Recover the amino acids of this structure.
């Protein structure tokens, strides 16, 4: 396909990111993910299609605006709860969306001036993305940063991801791919020569529990990690530390043993403590919310798991 016509569907693009690889980076978040982690803090990343989001706090009220009520051809938008203004004693009526009627025609988003109703999922060509990331080349060079392609699972949009990586490398931009590893090898192998660093998730070593909780087994994930290491790829292994699911000494012993098998390909292991800050994002999509809502792991537990892996000879940091 002509790369001028090739598009990727994004749910976010973050400039000046410092958590997705070395230095200052642009992180490109592509939509679509084959996993269904019950603690997911970016539910807008899961579906491959463009979706309607509704941020109630931006709604100025049906009395003052109400254009969406008239714009929706399906009658999916109606008056909702009465709210009190944060600036005075006045009240206003926010709208509500009946998702069972909504066809995601997005006509409501076209008339919503405060952008309370908005599309989540924007298509960009490779040229458009390169125009965006190229603007920050001076920051990449000064900080040792670059571009990270993330998701969702970016390698489920394989042609687009590969083309952006090729273009970045041609312009001397450091590249990182943030992946679940749950990808057919025929899509993963071609990106290796153009990827300086893989940010690679490990969530559970027990494949049965992995499938039961996350929706897919982990054999493909582990096998791909071994293949990337054998092909000369470099890793930052990421472990989300999830209460009850994978935070025990036994879990981390299994993680450590596997990571050691990858040898010098692993530059560092990053521990990501569970948080529940993404709960509000489920509400914007009109979904019930994450299945898992728990207290974040304590600092003591995080330090203990960090030391456990360090004692096995691994370099570890807590995000």
């Amino acid at each position: 396909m002509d790369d001028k016509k090739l598009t990727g569907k994004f749910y976010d693009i973050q400039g000046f990111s410092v958590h997705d690889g070395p230095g200052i980076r642009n992180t490109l978040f592509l939509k679509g993910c084959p996993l269904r982690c019950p603690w997911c803090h970016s539910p807008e990343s899961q579906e491959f299609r463009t979706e309607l989001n509704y941020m109630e706090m931006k709604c100025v009220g049906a009395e003052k605006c109400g254009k969406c009520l008239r714009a929706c051809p399906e009658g999916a938008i109606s008056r909702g709860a009465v709210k009190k203004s944060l600036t005075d004693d006045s009240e206003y009526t926010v709208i509500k969306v009946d998702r069972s009627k909504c066809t995601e025609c997005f006509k409501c988003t076209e008339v919503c001036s405060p952008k309370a109703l908005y599309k989540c999922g924007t298509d960009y060509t490779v040229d458009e993305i390169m125009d965006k990331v190229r603007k920050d080349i001076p920051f990449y060079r000064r900080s040792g940063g670059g571009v990270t392609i993330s998701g969702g699972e970016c390698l489920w949009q394989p042609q687009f991801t590969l083309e952006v990586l090729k273009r970045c490398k041609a312009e001397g931009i450091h590249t990182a791919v943030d992946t679940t590893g749950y990808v057919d090898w025929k899509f993963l192998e071609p990106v290796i020569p153009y990827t300086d660093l893989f940010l690679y998730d490990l969530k559970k070593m027990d494949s049965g529990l992995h499938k039961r909780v996350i929706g897919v087994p982990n054999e493909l994930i582990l096998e791909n990690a071994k293949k990337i290491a054998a092909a000369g790829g470099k890793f930052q292994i990421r472990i989300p530390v999830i209460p009850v699911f994978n935070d025990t000494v036994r879990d981390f012993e299994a993680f450590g043993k596997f990571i050691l098998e990858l040898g010098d390909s692993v530059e560092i292991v990053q521990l990501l403590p569970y948080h529940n800050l993404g709960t509000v994002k489920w509400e914007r999509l009109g979904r019930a919310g994450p299945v898992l809502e728990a207290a974040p792991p304590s600092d003591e537990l995080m330090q203990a798991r960090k030391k456990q892996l360090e004692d096995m000879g691994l370099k570890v940091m807590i995000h």
In short: The chain is about 30% helix and 25% strand. The CA atoms of residues 275 and 296 lie 5 Å apart.
